[in-house]
Amino acid sequence: MNTSSAIKLSPEEIVRFGDDPAAAFAQNMIAVQERIAAICHRCGRHPDEVRLLPVTKTIPANVLRHAYAAGITDFGENKLQEARDKLAMLDDLSIRWSIIGHLQTNKVKYLVRFASEFHALDSFRLAEELNRRLDALGRDLDVFVQVNTSGEESKYGLHPNDLMPFIERLPNYPRLKPRGLMTLAIFSADAERVRACFRLLRELRDRAVTIDPGLTKLSMGMSGDYEIAIEEGADVVRVGQAIFGPRPGADALYWPGLIPDPQSQEREETPR
Ligand SMILES: *Cc1c(COP(=O)(O)O)cnc(C)c1O
Q1: 20 C-alpha vs ligand 1 centroid, how far in Å?
Q2: The Alanine racemase N-terminal domain covers which part of the protein (predicted)?
Q3: 43-244 placed in CATH 1.10.490.160
Q4: Does ligand 1 lie within 6 Å of residue 55's CB atom?
Q5: 240: Cβ below 6 Å to ligand 1?
Q6: What would the pLDDT profile of 125-184 be if each residue is shown by its tens digit?
């Protein structure tokens, strides 16, 4: 039985999340789902086609107990260390963990133990190590291949030109179950530039499925741009701030690595 009111919040947490986070998160979930349904309706899609993946990064574990009490059981995390810390504190709950951000090869051994899916596959080195570690555990992993659709140096992901050769070699890693492509759009007030990123991913997906029929899904769209992403065909939207409220500090930005994050325990590799 989960009674969220019994989970203590610190004064700082009450400032950030209010004194009844479960109610607030539940209400925000409904609002986002209603908006997704409205967008789908407008562009002739069925709302069930779009999966809402709540992004829980920077939300403390005890606050996530309130989220869980509100019925949120899929958690998307972009940093492996943070996900591991939370897993250790929440191991009595049945959470489905999605790792959505860039992963260093030396963290693969942790990911394979608990993650249900990985959205940021972008190198053979990572594919090799994931496959090896998964095979040792006798398990498979759903993966999305990350593509850099904005051309920004700061973003991870394969260059669009490198995608098809990459996909052709994925059968070498049989423990990886390719589900689709993932991207982060450019951070811009110009909706057409954002849309161009999502459209490019869709076009790449349409070619990718001819090589690997499993690569059907598009993981794209965040709090600030999921409306455009759904219009362009998103199957999974990764939404944090619209559910859990604004993130303070450098984490307010959508992507890790753009601005050095002083709280980060992890040293990121330089994106190629
Ligand atoms: C943080 C993050 C999101 C969600 O961003 P919000 O602004 O909180 O909706 C989505 N995808 C990735 C990879 C992220 O790191």
Answers
A1: 23
A2: 31-248
A3: no
A4: yes
A5: yes
A6: 999 999 999 999 999 999 999 999 999 988 899 999 999 999 999 999 999 999 999 999
